[in-house]
């Protein structure tokens, strides 16, 4: 065999090896990409399941909790005010979109599709010292009890308890709802005090 033929064969084999390596590398990249996508999908599903489990536990816990009618009315009053506050704050920051956001539910629906609404929503939550989980817990309470609850104005609430925060800590067993209600009370009373600086909200636990 001539040297030239040998060189040609070596070159061909080298080319074949390089092609195989390139194919293996390409297949590896495709496999790695598929694994990353699968991992992300599984992580998303895991988070979704955790969220659903958490929501189910919240509903079950609230349905199992036994509050007196006065306790329900007191909590409902603060929940109603904080949800109205959230809605009003978002609309105030989006005057040109306010007409399309007639309710808090409409805000929560639209924030997933409209980045501007979502950013304002997040800013309002931060301003009030709240988190998404607080809103979910308070909305769950509202949905469960709205048909039976009565709204107590601020002056009427003081007739039933001198320390609403202590009552919440004592009777609300679900920790998520407890913290969300305490947050709602703090926000509502702080904003009321700001509107009336002379008022001292002694019934709010500091």
TrEMBL record:
Against Pfam families, the record matches this protein to: DUF4547 (PF15080)
User: Keywords of this protein's UniProt record, alphabetized?
Assistant: Coiled coil
Name the coiled-coil region(s).
7-55
Alphabetized PANTHER family for the sequence: SINGLE-PASS MEMBRANE AND COILED-COIL DOMAIN-CONTAINING PROTEIN 1 (PTHR35979:SF1)
Its recorded name reads Single-pass membrane protein with coiled-coil domains 1
Q: Where does this protein come from, organism-wise?
A: Chelonoidis abingdonii
Q: What is the lineage of its organism?
A: Eukaryota, Metazoa, Chordata, Craniata, Vertebrata
**What's the gene?**
SMCO1
